[in-house]
Amino acid sequence: MAKNRKNKLYLLIISTALIIGGVFVYFIISRDNQSNSSPVGAKTVTKVIDGDTVIVEGGASVRLLGIDADEKSYPCYDAAKNRLEELVLGKEVVLEKDQSDQDQYKRYLRYLILDDQNIDLQLVEEGLAVARFSPENQKYKEKIQKAETAAKEKKIGCKWGGVTLPREETKTEFKWEKLTAEATGLEVIGDCQAGNFSGKEKIIEGKVADAYKSKTNTVFINFDKPYPNHCFVAVIFSSNLYKFIENPEKYYANKTVRIKGVIKEYEGKPEVILSDPSQIEVGE
Questions:
Q1: What residues form DSSP beta bridges with 114?
Q2: Is the pTM of this model over 0.90?
């Protein structure tokens, strides 16, 4: 009897320990899942990385949807970052999703709403960021693109208020012989404005951030920022490559150029297909 009683006591102790252990593990897993879950709803902004990226409570990195602000070494980096800090740092904002949850850098893609104000839209209205949309996320596309057009027309903010690029290699006033408004009758626009003119023929001016040749010998010339953060791309297919200067991916790299052509959209990015060398000119 004493032995049976002792065995029952051992079983009770072991069962109790397993139950307590199970509950403890459940709460640990539940807590971890909550900390790793997709951030939505009201969150406090704990840090501003730049003009379009913040950190919220819990440590999640959030990329503002529908816009693109300058990174370090670009002219409007400080203005956009400082303004975003003024607007949201230390404040509780509502994180609003569109279709995509994260980008390729594992940042969560959200619109920031503060007191019913769309902060993404406000930065564009104030001329501190440009409109940038992917095919998956288009919820506020019309409003943000209209805001960019208005800011541009009124020359509002750092982006449109006549600020020139401060990088040493782009301080020079470039000269153009062929691709000018006078010679072609076409409007000259900036590389990051190209997305607003899909289906129209324009002259696009900008700094080549990177260029490369694919395995199929197609050359991609990316503007403003390296792929995949570029805001415009000029494409030379292999069938036309023989017409151009040898190794165009090396020749045009890091140069300020103008591109002439009809702007099309491919996978959410504006592009112009170059079929003839007369469509591209290097600034001197």
A1: 117
A2: no
